[in-house]
# Entry
Amino acid sequence: MITIAIAEDHQSLIDGVELLLKYEKEISIVGMANDGEKLLKIVRLKRPKVILTDIRMPKIDGIAATRIIKKELPHSKVIAFSMFDQEDAVRQMIDAGASGYILKNSPLEEVLTAIQQVAKGETYFDAAIDPSLFLGEVKQPAKKQILSKSEREILTLIGQGKTSSEIAAIRFNSVSTIETHRKNIIRKLDLHGKGELLRYAIEKKYDF
# Structure
């Protein structure tokens, strides 16, 4: 069981993440907070395996909270959940001890994937962030990451020759969401371009 605490000053975003995770049998949300001070109280009491935290929060920000958590509970894993993709913000969270960093404009399913990967002792970066900037500071997993259900479905459609616009229409998503999924799939499968992604999808060399 992966126990998780969530800290985010926008309640609507917490509600969205809670809705995503509440039906996952392997995940149990043990606490939710709207500021860093409350997050620390929850973490000290519940000792969750994974903490998903915003960077900018009232009372104690996510960076300071992460430092405290990693000092007091070094085995707990922290994932930054932020709207900021600047190198400095990412570096500060990694320096504080975070094992993952995802952006708020990513599909919510990315949150689930990040939690699963980090809980296994791996790191997880949003597709919009270049992990090579931090190599040497964070050990990257050598093996390919498991695709989410949506990513597997999209990869199947890619293999059928569908464009991002066509896939977006089929799945009732925006084109930008499909493009984000494409980037995530390419990163997870350690591919190096759209041509290789199409070839991979056609040959069905991915694991379900």
